[in-house]
Amino acid sequence: MISSRVYGRIAWLATSLLCLQASAVSAAEPARLYRTAGDCGGFPRTDLKTAAGFCVGLVAEHLGFARGVVALGADVYVVDMGGWHKNRGRVLRLGDHGRGAPRVVLSGLNLPNGLVPGPDGELYVGLSGKLIRFDPKAPDPSRSVRDVVVGLPQGGRHPLAALAFAADGSIYLNVGAASDHCERAGGGAPDAAQPCAETAEAPPRASILHFKPAASAVDARTLTPYATGLRNSMALVVLPSGQLITANNARDYIDRADPTLSDEELPHEPLDWVEAGADYGWPYCYDDRLPSPEYPKFDCSTRHAPTLLLPAHAAPLGMLLYRGQALPGLDGHLLIAYHGYRAKGHRIVGLALDGQGGPLGQPQDVVAGWDYAEGIHPMGAPVALWQMDDGSVLISEDHNGTLLRLAAEH
Questions:
Q1: pTM
Q2: Among 39, 77, 79, which Cα is nearest to 58's?
């Protein structure tokens, strides 16, 4: 029998090949990836499952390995990461609120992921190795590209950059861990008697940086990390209060070190209200400050506790604070995109916040139903979220290279 992990890898490879094929330009109209029927806010309605009162429309297909998404007026910008191939990434622009044909704005980018508008009106793109910005209104945006941060690590398992702006114009930037749990080359267990070497790099892996953009590029190797011990903070949000929140991607393969632990159920993905200077424990600790099996004697009480634990292997990659009444019942909720291929992944959840901006209760499904069903819909995996001016929410989905839109049902 094929294990769930092997099956997941086969599914990932298959869908990745599909995305690469979709990125090629063809004169013939490609087959539709989602079954649609009816209307959802002016777009073909998909059969994805939603909370009562909502629907998901299909905005655009064949966008490659779709990651970051931003809407500026009637223009929608989508990052095509180009698969896991260096220097094949692009930024695409779709006019008419996503209805227009995609036009290439930038190309030849190295594993682009995060896309965020800055207070200066420019778009900031997180690449492997650096952060760049460009003027989307320039006659030739490619000529306006400037480096914002250089010296970011490019190797290892987590080379993608995610970012978020604070109200003062400063930036929070993810630096992912190079490994799963600081394992040795070849996958051997780390030396429990030695500190994890990648946490001493410049900048430290598994950290979040905080800085203000300058007239010239900032060297990430000179920055003091804002927080550490966070394996891969791909989902970042700054609340109006200035509080930084990250939904983190925790480790895998915990059962290899301790067969009594369930790889399906552990470890959970931490959701953290991040405090400056705090160390959240990777790779020494997991869940609520439990010692990792590779570091059984580590004192995890010295590390910062997570605020909330999300399902294991949910793989949160995108998050936003929803404001407004266009999607009834979601005002003031965090919307989190779970990218993971396991049973509790591939969905979007909503988490209510209390009057102080803390979590209230547990996340609830808002969009689900991406499970693969032959002839009905593909295995999909949401990545980035963006609230439109009309209150609807754009969703990028990289397994099938699609752009979707969550709207109220009328």
A1: 0.91
A2: 39
